[in-house]
Amino acid sequence: MEKNIVQQGKQSLSFYQPPGILSSASVVGKKEGEGPLGNMFDVVGEDPMFGCDSWEDAESTLQKEAFTLAIGKSDIEKWQLRYVFAGDLLGQEMASCFGLADMQIPLFGVYGACSTAGESLSLAAMAVASGAADYVMALTSSHFASAEKQFRFPLAYGNQRPPSSTWTVTGSGAFVVGKDKGIAKITGITTGKIVDYGVTDSMNMGACMAPAACDTIYQNFMDFSCDEQQYDKIITGDLGDVGYEILIELMKDKGFDISQKLLDCGRLIYDKETQGTNAGGSGCGCSATVLSALILQKIKDKKWNKVLFVPTGALLSPVSHNEGLSVPGIAHGVVLESC
Predict the structure, then answer these.
(1) Which of 235, 242, 240, 233 lies closest to 282, judged by CA?
(2) Which of 21, 85, 149, 201 is deepest in the core (most CB within 10 A)?
(3) Tens-place pLDDT, residues 131-143
């Protein structure tokens, strides 16, 4: 019998019978709802606390809502999920652990910083394609206030934000992945490596993550013997304006001009001129909500037939930053095609 999972090159896999994304859901905060994609999200919350007593509990509520909506939009029941692959930015994946505790579904907690949507989708696709599960869910979230509290300053401090900084998206994206045809199919993945150029400025995460995005995109081209012309779009997670420009130049140095194909979720989700988000959006919820609201809809409508989705992550922690360490980056590539 022919294998369903085929190793491609150094870092990639392709699927003979591709898993499908059967349904998705996006839940965002008020600021995201006021942005250019506002009318495309499933739910826009007017209360940043989402009726909770803490920012962390609010983020857990985001995950619960996205989980429930994604299941409701699919043709399966919750009990049919074999696994959930979920993660967030908080210590010990607090939002995921508390948000999914009541679901009583086997959980793999994953952490890739803002690349978590790509990591969770990759693992979900591998689980389904290998026969380890018929249906799984990939889920992630972030919240502006909980992230600021953990990584930067309390909101009441009112610190100034440099032009290179990005705004953590308040949002959660959930995806039901299964053996059936759906909105789109996952035909391949390229798992990223940790790439560290020695950048220590945590307020310039675009510069930290762009080299990792370049490394993964280039490796995807090598592993699949292709180039940017094979994709309708190459969409990074949250490089923002700074990382976006750096990535284009880094890819040109490798002999590829992706400028006409490249989009970035962090540049799409906000209007920086009117919303004061500086370089753009970031956070686990950035690429996840844009994937659900915009990218999958374009693929479903056959406006885009093949997309390389590359969420990017800055692998810092409060401890590493306070000790003056650099901010390594990672990016995970997911090849999405129309059914």
Answers:
(1) 240
(2) 21
(3) 999 999 999 999 9
